[in-house]
Amino acid sequence: MELKKIIDNLQLEVLNKSEMSLSTEITGCYIGDLLSNVMANAQAGDIWFTVQTHMNVVAVAQLLNLGGVVFLEGHLPQADTIEKARKEKLVLLSSNDKAYELASSLFKLGLER
Amino acid sequence: MREWALDLHIHTLLSPCADDSMIPSVVLEYAKELGIDALAITDHNTSENVASFMEKGKELGVKIIPGMELQTQEDVHIICLFDTLRQTNLWQEIVYKKLPPLKNSKEYFGEQWIVNKDDELVRELDKLLLVGTSFTIEDAVEAVHELKGICIAAHVDKQAFSLWGHLGYIPPGLFLDGVEFTPFLPRNVKQLEQIKNEGYNYIVSSDAHHWDGIQAPQCYGYMEEINIEEIKKALRNEEGRYIRTLR
Fold it and tell me: For the whole prediction, is pTM greater than 0.80?
């Protein structure tokens, strides 16, 4: 499923708009805040929901080849994190919603993993 | 120079999760019996019992290093250590401003007692201590260094409240003075290697919350004397100083 479709349907805000391609293919979803656990369990192509805003989020997402990161419940990363993600061409998104609400919407859209 | 037995992570009955037995006489007499030369008093987000332990420590001949176990915004625990009570009090003032204005719920978290050097309960602290401050880990390390203290990432071999568990690895550009391992968990060889490659040395401390959680010496510092500058040098293997752990 194209990232753009998810952004539109879940009404996510793109935090680093410029130069970002939103056509990435998203194949699954992972939810978690403990980065060691995310590193062990998230899959390439996942969209990742988290409240963890530390800069290491970008590195973990890059390492695993994740399709994008959504910061939940109004949590926002610092400017240097957004800048790093822009350089790494990783799409950062935000939402005021909770993981459950967003994941339910994703499921209804047809993303089943 | 000589080797000094160090336990740089001990709670008192001010930490809600610590046992009532963590009063000056019990902690210090037991530590002395075990042959520990220096203890760091590191309660969660507070240092209000440090003064009493320092006084009692002087009486019994156990060196007390004033400190705190800070919880950052990322829910990572950092051991902050200082030389003097004055520095520690300044640090505590800063930390209190970064705590959310919530009250402790002792039914859920436990009681938070301030004690004098003779083990008498003085008053209960009603702030919620068992919570993340608004400090990012980077800002916390910088602020402690400004006060001439040192920062050691607590129990990095645990999942909960640990730098490694929550952030996956040591963020580059974070100028920690060292990391801490627990006495009990099996060592993760890969993690040890990675930490060495990052240029960090490690200590082992008991993180005792109950008097019999205080361990026989696990960690030695080969130093001229016990102070922050010497511990810093030992953590960097400078001028012949070193840290030796039992495992």
Answer: yes
